[in-house]
Specification:
The chain is 33% helix and 25% strand. Strands 1, 2, 7, 8, 9, 10 and 22 form a seven-stranded mixed sheet that branches. Helix 1 packs parallel to helix 5 and helix 1 runs parallel beside helix 12. With 424 residues, it is α+β, with helices and mostly antiparallel strands. Bound molecules: flavin-adenine dinucleotide (FAD). Flavin-adenine dinucleotide binds next to helix 1, helix 2, helix 6 and helix 12.
Length: 424
């Protein structure tokens, strides 16, 4: 598709969640603003469509800076406050996408379809005269100085001029959706630095074969991550055992911390409490009570009253405890060793699955290099950065989209205000 006009007020590079939000909020606030979105993909919104298992977890009922890693929490707080969760719910209601809350606090569209979210955003953008150009991957951006202040945005097919440019290219996660890290290079060309990137929200690869016997099993756990020199972090949530290791929210949230520790070459140890509501005393009492009720039963049978049977077997085998021992004969030291292991099961992490499976990228353009009141670059005036390209990544639960919507709102408003000053 050729671009019929080569002069734009705003060129947005990347039409994912953050780019679409920026375009919509800019066009709403300044209807005469000429806004173009350039995207390298053949169709927009691939990542929105796969999000939340195809249902798109749009946001969370409670979003705080503590739900994010990366840059300064104060800066994150300012940006999130500009478009709160309530504002986001209202925004989607205006787009005819009512949201509902699920027990974990996640908000999904009532349709339970990510397609509804994407279609509504595209409809709103096009109805506000935002021009969307797909199949146009931006390779270079030149910042112009002097009388032709603005930017030249170069794609393989053509070059356009824009007064302002928004980098909304995402990071490196799920590159088949179009975000292949090329945006970082564009940011670098324009003078930005980068915090090293690592996959975030990524399944964990485990050594050994404990996990293989449990493949398909889901359970609530509390993972404790001990990074050398830091206080331990405790992440509670659902854990899914798989043929390669573990996935599910608890594992994926852990991947971020694990990868950053390894990036800094710091030793990191992760253990799983398989009974997150118990401590040693309560779990021992539960085992003793069961033993008193079933003195002739085998340890494996009684443990299977507390854990799925195949996990009970795998635990006893890993600890070299005889599964056939009767409860009345189960030595105290073995019982205590078993309880300690259940409360701090070692997770022999050898890596994470990588960007191809990661839901988000940790690292990126430092928040100190943007003005949080506008999302404008502090090193390249007229350039704005939004979404995952920045050094912010949220935990699982709708936080990453909220970051995209809020940043897009701030940038959109700022772009409209900037052009209003010029009488557009
Ligand atoms: C499987 C999966 C499930 C997820 N589920 C959820 C969820 O339910 N809730 C949640 O909050 N978060 C979820 N996330 C994270 C969330 O999708 C991202 O944080 C968010 O989409 C980032 O938005 P973005 O606009 O910054 O980047 P992206 O969505 O990655 O969009 C970037 C766009 O820029 C384009 N682009 C890149 N480089 C160029 C270039 N050089 N020129 C032109 N175009 C370019 C790409 O084609 C792409 O369209 C999920 C992620 C994945 C991978």
């Amino acid at each position: 598709m050729a671009i019929e006009d080569t002069q734009w007020d705003v060129a947005i590079v990347g039409g994912g969640a953050a780019g679409l939000a920026t375009a919509i909020f800019a066009a709403r606030a300044a209807p005469r603003l000429r806004v173009v979105i350039l995207d390298g993909a053949t169709k927009l919104g691939a990542k929105i469509l796969v999000s939340g298992g195809g249902r798109c977890n749009v946001t969370n009922v409670r979003v705080t800076p503590a739900d994010y890693w990366g840059g300064s929490r104060n800066i994150i707080k300012k940006i999130l406050a500009a478009l709160s969760v309530e504002d986001t719910i209202a925004f989607f209601r205006e787009l005819n996408v009512p949201l509902h809350e699920e027990p974990t606090g996640k908000l999904f569209p009532d349709s339970n379809s990510a397609r509804t979210v994407l279609d509504a955003l595209l409809r709103e953008a096009t109805s506000r005269n935002v021009r969307i150009i797909t199949d146009h991957r931006v390779t270079t951006i030149h910042a112009l100085n002097g009388p032709r202040f603005g930017f030249e945005v170069v794609t393989a097919a053509e070059t356009i001029s824009a007064g302002c440019v928004v980098l909304a290219t995402g990071g490196l996660s799920f590159p088949k959706t179009g975000s292949d890290g090329g945006g970082y290079e564009l940011a670098r060309q324009l003078g930005h630095t980068l915090c090293s990137t690592t996959p975030g929200l990524d399944p964990l690869l485990l050594d050994g074969n404990f996990h293989t016997a449990l493949s398909g099993l889901t359970q609530e756990v509390e993972l404790t991550i001990r990074v050398d020199g830091e206080s331990p972090q405790h992440l509670r949530g659902s854990l899914l055992w798989t043929h390669f290791g573990v996935s599910g929210p608890a594992a994926m949230n852990t991947s971020r911390v694990w990868n950053r520790a390894r990036l800094d070459k710091r030793p990191v140890i992760v253990t799983a409490n398989l009974f997150p509501d118990d401590d040693f005393a309560t779990l021992e009492k539960r085992l003793l009570d069961l033993g008193a009720e079933h003195p002739k039963s085998q340890v494996a049978t009684v443990l299977a009253m507390l854990l799925p049977a195949r996990q009970a077997d795998a635990v006893l085998a890993a600890l070299s405890l005889r599964p056939t021992t009767q409860m009345s004969q189960f030595p105290r030291d073995d019982r205590r060793r078993l309880i300690n292991a259940l409360l701090a099961w070692p997770m022999p992490i050898r890596g994470t699955r990588g960007y191809a499976y990661a839901e988000v990228t940790a690292g990126g353009v430092p928040l100190t290099e943007i003005n949080p009141a506008t999302m404008e670059s502090r090193v390249c005036p007229g350039l704005y950065l939004v979404g995952e390209i920045l050094d912010v990544d949220g935990r699982i639960g709708g936080f990453n989209f909220q970051w995209a919507w809020s940043g897009g709102y701030v940038a959109g408003k700022a772009l409209a205000a900037r052009h209003a000053q010029r009488g557009i």
